[in-house]
Amino acid sequence: MSARGAELRELAAAPAAPGARGLLEPPPGEEPYYRPVGDEVEVFTAAARDRLPVVLKGPTGCGKSRFVRYMAWRLARPLVTVACHDDLSASDLTGRYLVRGGDTVWQDGPLTEAVRAGAIAYLDELVEARQDTVVVLHPLADDRRLLPLERAGELVAAHPDFQLVISYNPGYQSLAKELKPSTRQRFIGIELALPAPEVEAEIVARETGVPLPTAASLVRVAQRIRPLRDRGLAEAPSTRLLVHAARLVQAGIDPAVACRSAVCAALTDDPELEATLAEIVAATLG
Ligand SMILES: Nc1ncnc2c1ncn2[C@@H]1O[C@H](COP(=O)(O)OP(=O)(O)OP(=O)(O)O)[C@@H](O)[C@H]1O
Ligand SMILES: [Mg+2]
User: Fold this and answer.
1) Is residue 168 domain-shared with residue 208, that is, in the same domain?
2) Ligand 1 centre from 60 Cα, in Å?
3) Which chain residues have CB less than 5 Å from ligand 2, an ion?
4) How many C-beta atoms surround the C-beta of residue 90 within 10 A?
5) Whole-model pTM?
6) 108 and 157 belong to one structural domain
7) For position 57, which CATH number holds?
């Protein structure tokens, strides 16, 4: 059987891996709320102007996805997001032949769509993807800006507005899961650090509508829990968890209960550690 025949059979048998299909979202019509925490907006803007790919580094819930949506709005570019996983193949990104009414037609994958349309392609947690998937990005992520579609026999030159963005969480990813230097060195690194407490409180208040002092007290809880990261907690509580807690408070839940449900329970399943966290909540919110 020809290589293409084999691919068609494989396709008929197996649908695309979950999460593989991205959607070209038009640029957000309304400005997404994003509170800069450093010089990330300026650096991203400069990188986009110079057509340099970007890696966003930061723990879960620190605002990476929100930042990318905000930049898509600022730069008025469509956005394609792909959640990478270890089953993601190169064709999940680039495209494949599909059988339609007896004909075989080429279907662009999410990355190809973004490359042609001049969109921002956000590959979330790229480090999770297989190496043979990652290398597809190499000619795209250097000054060639080319995406080879081997199976379709096409070499796609990226639209001038195409912007490649990947995310990387240095916290929980093991050393075995690192991008190769030949991949890493193609990207401008932007680190999204934790915001200063006043800034984080402002974000939580603005996101949820709780009064600023309430937001500030939730941030204090997080600040006291964060040092436990090295002592049993896999991840420190993120701004996202504080936003969740504030939403519960806004819905009428007592702040301590909100913290236990939205913060403590999300951080650990270990009863002892959860009890320690609950004590910190009670001591902080008094
Ligand atoms: N700087 C910020 N400005 C506005 N909102 C923020 C900011 N940082 C965090 N948030 C809030 O935190 C939530 C989580 O952020 P986001 O989903 O962007 O995290 P992430 O870094 O993409 O996490 P993950 O790695 O898990 O995908 C957002 O929905 C938003 O409410
Ligand atoms: Mg995200």
Assistant:
1) no
2) 8
3) 64-65
4) 22
5) 0.90
6) yes
7) 3.40.50.300
Q: Which of 151, 176, 191 is the last residue of a domain?
A: 191
- What number is the average pLDDT over the span 12-18? 43
Q: Are residues 167 and 235 in the same domain?
A: no
Q: How far apart, in Å, are the Cα atoms of 239 and each of 72, 199, 203, 269? A: 21, 11, 8, 20
* Spatial CA neighbour of 189 closest among 72, 38, 77: 38
Question: How many domains, the chain?
Answer: 2
Q: Domain range holding 41?
A: 3-191
- The pLDDT score that the predictor gives to residue 12 is 44
Using the atom order of ligand 1, give the atom closest to the CA of residue 207.
Answer: 31
85 and 184 in one domain?
A: yes
Residue whose Cα lies nearest atom 9 of ligand 1: it is 63
| DSSP conformational letter for 26 | P
Are 161 and 244 in the same domain?
A: no
Cβ distance 245 to 262 under 8 Å? yes
Return the structure tokens found at 133. Answer: 């998937």
Please measure the distance between the N-terminal and C-terminal CA atoms of the chain and give it in whole angstroms.
72
Of 191, 211, 232, which residue sits at a domain end? 191
Runs of H (alpha helix) within the chain: 3-13, 40-49, 64-74, 90-94, 110-117, 131-134, 181-184, 197-208, 212-225, 239-250, 255-259, 265-267, 271-285
- Ligand found nearest the CA of 33: 1
The ligand 1 site (C-beta within 6 Å) comprises 33-35, 37, 58, 60-66, 169, 203, 207, 239-240, 243
Predicted confidence (pLDDT) per residue in 242-281, tens digit: 999 999 999 999 999 999 999 999 999 999 999 999 999 9
